[in-house]
């Protein structure tokens, strides 16, 4: 039995690890396009900021750790074609020669590619000019090389999603003045505007020049750096002179290899897979950012996240060995730290829930993270979305300070969503309490109780049998 | 409709609030034995430590807040008897006169009393001598009065459970040298000895003189303070000279009123109630530390906790108005901060699980709270207990540093236990991840995955269909 995995990131490595764990007699080869298997690309902003002192520390496991599991790694090796009928993977070796690797089972984890938006001049500029995209370790080295060479004092970031926000923090920590340009009405567009506004304030507080409802239209070189033109949605012209431009506006699935082999495309062009991670091509599985995401509330969508890639890869690795497991599905649980704020979400926002056929209603409340009498209590903004008809919990969004245990509070909601709890039933959960860290009804429950009071109190009252009164 | 609640602490107030919320036409009277309704007795250690600057801040709600809900409060009023047939509560007023309060429904939340252990001399000593128990606001004022009067430099605490540990920290913060004496083999006996040992180390690191396997046998007055005799389980004699003694060895249910009215006693003498909080006496409900605890894994037990009292009170308040809800049950979720450590647990430990008919096996592991490459990562000791036959999650214990989000990580396990998840299925949960706050598989999942590897890998391997190889 020879299992071949393509991709050295979360999905490929997770699949390979699971296969080796389940059957140490299985031969496992991982084909990696670069020299950096199992690197944490989520950690790149913290390397750029200087908080991670050496890029090698970004490896989840070292090359030696991976070899010790018994898997073989073929680094700097690019998968060019899948010969499905012949069960062979065609590759280009580091020296330019080609090879065919025979497999019994193949797992494809080619991941995603950074989106290059339509900006005039962007195609003609490169990292040598201080214009960067950021997704891979190669991109990271190019950026640090620019930072060393240019010694920028002014940078402009196109995009204010997770990576854009983390990079705004990272470049600010290096003493660089950051201008951040976001097309949508508010930064962190994955959360409600009223919550994104809190992150916006945090950016401004830390010296970031934030432009929302604004698009970068043109980038050009000047004698001293880069000139950037933009426009607001109102048509107002914007211009900036900076030393460095970073374009981080999201990713698209890297599906070329699979589509050419005959796989089908689904939402946003990602490869359609079953919940078993089967592609429909015999003996070919796929996982991670290159495939669609099964979502427990939305069905089949595309929502690339490292946590999801780990889970999908694990499922693919098990099934490739003859297992019969399925990916349980995503809830889109996400968290980001931006300076001293943490923002998290799980499940659906109202517009997503409406599109999925629910009847969402929401309530935002700001319970303290712990008892106000104990020093250091801070409010957490929590927005609960539930179904008006069934009372089912549909989603939660949380923003608060770094010490407020936001990232693990969202996990309680994620676990509740996993089990299709009602908002009301959250009150039944036996959550922990000590005054320095919580409340007798945890903030998680105070938020759901407020939702119930606003949206279900009349229904609760109607259940009382009036004859006892 | 007149609802009367006895008790100004969690259960009584929670019941009264729920009743007023559900039916603002219901007249609600709360009979409170002292002058401190809705005070957070869990916060007392932080008032003693000086972190809470005024005792009034310990109120969850002020007297005015409570009145604003429309409930009536009768303070310093002691419930002496329940006339069940006549639906009247007999009380002694602050001026010594007696009264009978007619009720349609009665909710009893008399709470618990501190246990006074058998120590020679204890009966003859009082707060005037610097010997204290600690449970109520009255006890708190007596203790602060002693602290002001005696200006102790040396204190001895009998007991190293939650309150004992918090008080060790609180008195240490006041500059008092603390000796802590625990009868059992390790401090914080609610967790495994190997985890309690970490708390022990934290106490020692902060200057507390800890004696485990040791019993205080005698307390007596001297010219300058108090002389305490003890013995180790090996029979070795111990003696201490201190200025203050605090005895905090747990509580027992305060059931006198209900038992005299005809209610039945259950585990540890607590009043037996249905999951509806019905006592079996017509129109009499009870909730909180005076009643038994329905536990989702253990059945009927006694496990007094503020979080439980809040939930039970809420159920009693609703059902007294004609509702038909049940208390969903406790999982014994608890957390305590001891200096810079946080210890938490939920569900069962092995000996409890064995007694309940499970086949528990456990694994302790120490995953980092977040990615090691990001500054400040610290290990969390996590002990997972699961059923060897069914794979069901039975319990989790966690100890780590204060910033490691222990208290909300235990909540993920508590929510999983609520839904009777298997240890293995924890891997399917879509938990949040960002490098400064977590890992792609959160510490919660790394711990459960290690349990699965140790106890179920052979079973997982057996599920692979061998013909695909």
TrEMBL record, chains A, B:
Record domain FAD/NAD(P)-binding: where: 2-313
Keyword Oxidoreductase: yes
GO MF, any single term: oxidoreductase activity
Entry keyword set: FAD, Flavoprotein, Oxidoreductase, Redox-active center
Cofactor(s) demanded: FAD
Pfam families, per the entry: Pyr_redox_2, Pyr_redox_dim
Secreted listed as a keyword: no
Residue stretches making up the Pyridine nucleotide-disulphide oxidoreductase dimerisation domain: 335-438
Family, per entry: Belongs to the class-III pyridine nucleotide-disulfide oxidoreductase family.
Name of the protein in its database record: Unannotated protein
Organism: freshwater metagenome
